[in-house]
Please model this.
Amino acid sequence: MTTYSTPAPVAPKQVLVLVYDSFAEFEVSVLLTVLSGGRHQVTTCALGPDPVTSTGGLRVLPDAVVADLDPMAYDALVVPGGEASGLLGSPSLRRLVQALDRDGRLLAAICGGPAVLGDAGVLDGRTFTAALGPADPAWPGVAGRGRRLPELLVSDGHVVTATGSSYLAFAEEVLRCLDGRPEAEPLTYFREPSPG
Model:
């Protein structure tokens, strides 16, 4: 299997991935595969210590509980989509997101994940996208927040948002941000068919 590497030395980054019941693992699977083959360290976190089950039935035991995290020990937070309404209103999650935002750390959310960012107030004054509509239980997280664009991927400073079907573009943008290489196309391997 081909692994992702950067030609220029990049300091390893500490990346948090929020997991919760119904999180859409396929939206972050390529990103996690590339991160695990690179120099960055991934830590899964959840609101509690118990295993969570993804939308595809994958059971994940989180590495850490959100309330126990030191935000300044991490360089990025990735929020997969799923039915995220159960995350809204969590004081510890709001504090984590707000602390990362204040320090300019990467905040990346896909599909319904931007509701978590909106719930913490970090979409205010920013452009974003999301795969959420008024009928979605997590809609209150983004309703009236920032300026939603009808785009597949939106980067606004250190905040990256995408629709669920844009998971490859999302992964690539997250990698560009982590590695400080805006010109890179790090996922060519996943976008082009391999010869027989």
About this structure: Confidence is low (pLDDT under 50) at residues 1-7. Residues 167-179 form the longest helix (13 residues). The two ends are 14 Å apart (CA to CA). The first strand starts at residue 14 and ends at 18.
